[in-house]
């Protein structure tokens, strides 16, 4: 196998999502489907002699929700077969073809069929075992819609091959990173991860001969420690193990998109769930989601959150806490413990505690307690009152030297641990307040802390209340989130220009819907997060 | 003599959040099931006296918070444990898959003298829920228990008091056996074990 050349910068990257195609109703024949896809492709494929484009095929078709309701796609080999019938410019201008999560058909047939089709096409083809591997190969996933089917398949792959989840695995070429960057930004300004290319491509390489390398054991603590030592000078390998102040600064003082998305999801779709924030998630999507969110911000894809929440409503809150717990330093630093223990009123939170925290920490903590506050409106269904929420959230916000002190801080006020577990002189060393008591106060009295107005029914009177009410409201069959999901599922194909992402969309259900859908789909995506890029 | 000594058994209950650890303990000790929905903080313990093999023993049941975060307290929690109860919810396969982690965690933190033979008991809780919600089959659970050295397995319902007495009776019995062994070690506080790795392998090691 030859080495995979690095991805090409400044070419449009198109994503073809087979699960969206699989959702197209049966009366539409495969040939119509192909014609439609080609037509959508056309503006980006260019004419002969143009620069060309990159195509990513997300080949995972099935997800837990759509099981059995989907058409059987002809399989990747059918696509390849049709390759010959596709006008020359599409083939000629295709510079890279990445197939992510290939089914068995693709794995076994592709390496055989493709050279027969066109010897020149062969080096263009890259079969990538996982989405994370694709990201590490230098394809920024920003703007790519990740459907549930792809997440499900990613979870399966990561379960079977845990080494794929480890960022920068086997990075021997750290020096290469700088060299490549100096040579004019092979990755179009994406400084991160050049070193990871070699490892990820290595993975892809070994993947080509029909199977993945045998799963290796997770690295021992020693090698992990050694790696983190090696990386200490570089930026953290995982976005969410970074410093909270740096993360907020990178987002120009705002919260990262993921925290907004998780908030909307938790209040909109998970607020009917008993034991929210407390119970373990039941699905396996946690690992791929965390992996994708741990990519550098620029490389993070758009996730089908609604699909995730439908699969497992416990997952969004658990993921949120995972992210916050993983930060390089705990949100509430140890030197604030005495202050926490003597903060008894909302006023004291506002005037004493908040000024002692960095603005970034305040932003995140306010966000978290605000979510908690709006969840209280659903306590009859979640059974999670302010105290319960505080109990399950508190341990993730601190990480002091002495676990006994942290444990004591996570007690309800007035309770105590078995004597052998209490820190010495605890009672004498500070006030009677605990972090749980403080959080309970902050969550239930959120408007008072934030000096926000309270609505008639006692909840904070902000836009979230409306959104939350609306989303979880009267007609559970069509919450707004579902609408998102449907439109998201249809966007099987769209386009992204590296650097300035422009997207159009939609593998249409029918020809008519297709025409109507383009405008709507485009509008939707532009509204989401790219309007700033388009100006 | 040790037979007349008052026996105190320390039993640790581990498992993911919300699988019913506190409820099981409450059902066993107080014969009550509370519909109150309450997350456990840190750790707490309840005691109950019972008779095992004609001996009156006091079982000290340590309830723990299911959150990973408190594992850092493990050493202090687990020290001197005589039995470890692993609880999962039969309606959540994630909570079942987490058992491996909880078991390893316990063995690392408590570092019992003889980890191979340390008594564990696995409880699959919430069997009162409707069958269609069940995610972990009895067979799957039993296969796991067998693979981990024939761990006794019970399917329980703290809510309807199914199998709770039986399960804790077994827990006490196994803990008592462990306690006897611990005392053996306690008599020789610092035993020099030359071939510690092989000392316990009486049978064929296949």
UniProtKB/TrEMBL annotation, chain A:
PANTHER family registered for this protein in UniProt: RHO GTPASE-ACTIVATING PROTEIN 68F
PROSITE patterns named among the record's database cross-references: RHOGAP (PS50238)
Signal peptide stretch: 1-22
Annotated protein name in UniProt: Rho-GAP domain-containing protein
Keywords annotated in UniProt: Signal
Native organism: Vanrija albida
Any Pfam family the entry gives: CRAL_TRIO_2
InterPro entries: CRAL-TRIO_dom (IPR001251), CRAL-TRIO_dom_sf (IPR036865), Rho_GTPase_activation_prot (IPR008936), RhoGAP_dom (IPR000198)
Rho-GAP domain location: 242-450
UniProtKB/TrEMBL annotation, chain B:
Alphabetically ordered keywords of this record: GTP-binding, Lipoprotein, Nucleotide-binding, Prenylation
Annotated Pfam families: Ras
InterPro entries: P-loop_NTPase, Small_GTP-bd, Small_GTPase
PROSITE patterns according to UniProt: RAB (PS51419), RAS (PS51421), RHO (PS51420)
Signal sequence annotation: none
UniProt cross-references to NCBIfam families, sorted A to Z: small_GTP (TIGR00231)
Family classification: Belongs to the small GTPase superfamily. Rab family.
Protein name as it appears in the record: Uncharacterized protein
Source species of the chain: Vanrija albida
């Amino acid at each position: 196998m030859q080495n995979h050349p690095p991805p090409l910068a400044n070419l449009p990257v198109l994503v073809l999502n087979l699960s969206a195609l699989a959702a197209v109703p049966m009366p539409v024949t495969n040939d119509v489907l192909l014609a439609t896809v080609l037509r959508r492709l056309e503006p980006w494929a260019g004419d002969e002699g143009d620069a060309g484009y990159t195509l990513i095929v997300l080949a995972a078709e099935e997800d837990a929700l759509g099981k059995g309701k989907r058409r059987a796609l002809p399989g990747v080999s059918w696509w390849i077969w049709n390759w010959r019938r596709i006008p020359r410019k599409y083939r000629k201008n295709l510079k890279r073809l990445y197939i992510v999560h290939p089914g068995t058909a693709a794995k076994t047939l592709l390496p055989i069929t493709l050279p027969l089709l066109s010897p020149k096409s062969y080096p263009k083809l890259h079969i990538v075992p996982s989405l994370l591997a694709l990201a590490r190969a230098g394809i920024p996933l920003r703007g790519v819609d990740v459907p549930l089917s792809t997440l499900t398949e990613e979870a399966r792959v990561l379960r079977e091959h845990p080494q794929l989840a480890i960022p920068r695995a086997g990075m021997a070429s750290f020096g290469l990173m700088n060299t490549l960057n100096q040579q004019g930004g092979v990755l179009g300004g994406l400084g991160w991860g050049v070193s990871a290319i070699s490892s990820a491509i290595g993975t892809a390489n070994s993947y080509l001969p029909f199977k993945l390398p045998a799963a290796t054991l997770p690295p021992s603590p020693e090698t992990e420690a050694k790696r983190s030592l090696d990386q200490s000078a570089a930026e953290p390998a995982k976005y969410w193990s970074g410093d909270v102040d740096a993360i907020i600064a990178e987002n120009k003082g705002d919260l990262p998109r993921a925290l907004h998305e998780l908030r909307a999801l938790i209040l909109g779709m998970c607020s009917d769930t008993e034991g929210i924030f407390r119970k373990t998630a039941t699905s396996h999507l946690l690992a791929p989601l965390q992996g994708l969110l741990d990519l550098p911000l620029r490389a993070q894809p758009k996730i089908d959150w609604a699909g995730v929440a439908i699969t497992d409503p416990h997952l969004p809150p658990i993921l949120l806490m995972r992210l916050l717990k993983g930060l390089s330093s705990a949100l509430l630093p140890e030197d604030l413990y005495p202050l926490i223990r003597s903060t008894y009123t909302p006023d004291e939170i506002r005037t004493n505690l908040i000024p002692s925290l960095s603005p970034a920490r305040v932003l995140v903590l306010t966000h978290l307690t605000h979510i908690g506050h709006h969840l209280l409106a659903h306590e009859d269904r979640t059974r999670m009152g302010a105290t319960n929420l505080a109990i399950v959230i508190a341990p993730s916000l601190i990480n002091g030297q002495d676990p006994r002190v942290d444990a004591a801080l996570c007690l309800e006020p007035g309770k105590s641990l078995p004597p052998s577990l209490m820190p010495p002189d605890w009672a004498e060393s500070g006030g009677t307040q605990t972090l749980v008591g403080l959080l309970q106060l902050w969550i239930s009295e959120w408007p008072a802390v934030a000096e926000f107005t309270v609505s008639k029914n006692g909840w904070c009177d902000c836009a979230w209340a409306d959104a939350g009410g609306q989303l979880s409201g009267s007609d559970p069959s069509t919450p707004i989130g579902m609408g998102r999901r449907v439109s998201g599922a249809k966007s099987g194909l769209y386009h992204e220009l590296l650097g300035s992402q422009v997207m159009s969309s939609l593998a249409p259900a029918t020809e008519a819907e297709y025409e109507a859908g383009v405008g709507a789909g485009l509008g939707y995506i532009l509204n989401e997060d790219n309007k700033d890029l388009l100006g | 003599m040790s037979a007349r000594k008052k026996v105190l058994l320390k039993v640790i209950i581990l498992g993911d959040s919300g699988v019913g650890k506190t409820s099981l303990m409450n059902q066993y000790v107080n014969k009550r099931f509370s519909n109150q929905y309450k997350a456990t903080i840190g750790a707490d313990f309840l005691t109950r006296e019972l008779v095992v093999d004609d001996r009156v023993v006091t079982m000290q049941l340590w309830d723990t918070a299911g959150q990973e975060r408190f594992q850092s307290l493990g050493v202090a929690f687990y020290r001197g444990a005589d039995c470890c109860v692993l609880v999962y919810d039969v309606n959540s396969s994630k909570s079942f898959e987490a058992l491996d982690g909880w078991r390893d965690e316990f063995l690392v933190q408590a570092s019992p003298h003889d980890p191979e033979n340390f008594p564990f008991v696995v409880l699959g809780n919430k069997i009162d829920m409707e069958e269609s919600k069940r995610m972990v089959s009895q067979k799957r659970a039993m296969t796991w228990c067998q693979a981990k050295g024939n761990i006794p397995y019970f399917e329980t319902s703290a809510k309807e008091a199914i199998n709770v007495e039986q399960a804790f009776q077994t827990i006490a019995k196994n803990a008592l056996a462990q306690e006897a062994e611990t005392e053996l070690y306690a008599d020789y506080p610092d035993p020099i074990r030359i071939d510690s790795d092989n000392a316990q392998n009486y049978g064929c090691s296949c």
